[in-house]
Amino acid sequence: MIKKELEVVILSDVHLGTYGCHAKELIQYLNSIKPELLIINGDFFDAWQFKKRYFPKEHLQVIQEIIKMSVLGTKVFYITGNHDDIFRKFGELSAGNIHLRDKLVLHLQDKKYWIFHGDIFDFTVLSSPILAKLGGKGYDLLILFNRMINKCRVRFGLQPWSLAKKVKSGVKRAIKFIADFELKAIHVAHEKGFDYVVCGHIHQPQIRKVDIKGHEVTYLNSGDWVESLTALEYRFGNWQLYKYDEADFNFVNRKLVPSTDAETMLGLTKSLKKKAWFKRIVENAESNYQDHILR
User: Are strands 111-115 and 104-108 parallel, antiparallel or unpaired?
Assistant: First the structure.
């Protein structure tokens, strides 16, 4: 496969460790691109929903694919979100080409970017973490139920549909929350002198430009890999939203296995395991994978 060469790719809200995560589709996408810079903008893991009995091999493969990309020269920034906020206590860490951050300031073509997950604008997360976590569990169950429905729809020749999106689009309060979230991010970015503000968190892919007193601020949101299956791609000075389409890939009879050279992977894993924070991630993933295949 000829990989699409990109300057920057931003993805967020993968939620590894949950039933809603579309890991297989993400592996296909990652195998199809060759970015100079990959930014994971929060909620890559879902510590809120993490269960030892559920961490499929595809979820581990997503981690391996990103490690492979870093070995081959891609600079990776992992920005923490609210579902993986356990990593925030480690502050700023770097291991090879992988860098852990809470936020990121980036300069592209004389434009200043402010990149962070976005949960600082979510009143529920800030004021009632317990309520937010309960909501996260309910959302994961809704996604699981939705998948069961879609399997039945496909059997009868019907198009799959998103129950979660239907619920959210039918609730005026949810629509207002999304609009308020975007405007808040845009106005704060303007006050801080940024040209672009890049978020995740609300699972709503978006590219939106707003003029504030003669200063144009662009809001970008990479969406998620639970419902939208989207990412932000940058090349030739332009941003575009990528939307996963199964028709773009010919993986019908091909196993989804990491294409990383075994010796390279082994050497990199040993190097990264010297970092305490990464050691816990890898060991938990490997343990859960073993539990899964031995059941």
Answer: antiparallel
The whole-angstrom separation of Cα 278 and Cα 281 is: 5
Say which residue the tokens 């979100």 belong to.
81
155-186 core/surface letters (b: 16 or more CB in 10 A; e: else): eeeeeeebebeeebeeeeeeeebbeebbeebb
> Which tens digit of pLDDT belongs to each residue from 222-279?
999 998 999 999 999 999 999 999 888 864 434 444 444 444 444 555 555 555 555 5
- Residue that the structure tokens 């993968």 belong to: 14
Q: Which residue has the tokens 């810079």?
A: 37
**Entry pTM:** 0.72
Express each pLDDT in 11-46 by its tens digit. 999 999 988 899 999 999 999 999 999 999 999 998
Q: DSSP characters for the chain?
A: -PPEEEEEEEE----BTSTT--HHHHHHHHHTEEEEEEEEES-SB-TTT-BTTB--HHHHHHHHHHHHHHHTT-EEEEE--STTGGGGGG-SEEETTEEEES-EEEEETTEEEEE---GGG-HHHHH-HHHHHHHHHHHHHHHHHHHHHHHHHHHTTPPP--HHHHHHHT-HHHHHHHHHHHHHHHHHHHHTT-SEEEE-SS---EEEEEEETTEEEEEEE---TTTT-EEEEEETTEEEEEE--GGG---TT--------HHHHHHHHHHHTTSHHHHHHHHHHHHHHHHHHH-
